[in-house]
Amino acid sequence: MIKKLWILFKATFMISASTSGGYVILSMMRRRFVEDLKWISDEEMLDLTSLAQSAPGPIAINGSILLGYRICGYAGAYITMFGTVLPPLIIMSLVTYFYDFVVQFQLIRFMLRGMQAGVAAIIFDVTLGLFINVIKQKSIVLDLLMALAFAVAFFTKINIFYLAIFCAVCGLVKTNLLLRKEGRI
To answer: At what angle do helices 59-102 and 42-54 cross, to 10 degrees?
Structure first.
């Protein structure tokens, strides 16, 4: 058991240290634990990935916790979570500590600007994907809610948290009404 836990920690630590998170980590975990070690099946990994996507929080952390739990129970879940979180924690701590020194270099400033552009592109892609999913549902209520939320966020100084809560309540009310109409409640 200890040897398996050590392998879990080492593998998740190395994968997390060498990737940028999300689906990349899950595909690397699949390669390591399904193909190389054969500790779980492809179907199990697909199920774990689906669960990791549906749970709130970062998909890399969710996936590593589920994988660790599947292989070694609670101890495995804690070990893989720690192995996945530790590399970014170390990197961010070092960056924070040395930021004032490092930011003096022109090359580093250019790299940070490039990273900002990359993050903006990722956020735009996610936003566009969510927008397309809402439009595909062909719901006037959802379309109006999306337009209203955008307008309120763009033209007012209302805290985005309150806007998100409002939209969540609207979604719950719409779902409740739909389920009542279908006779499920």
So the answer is: 60
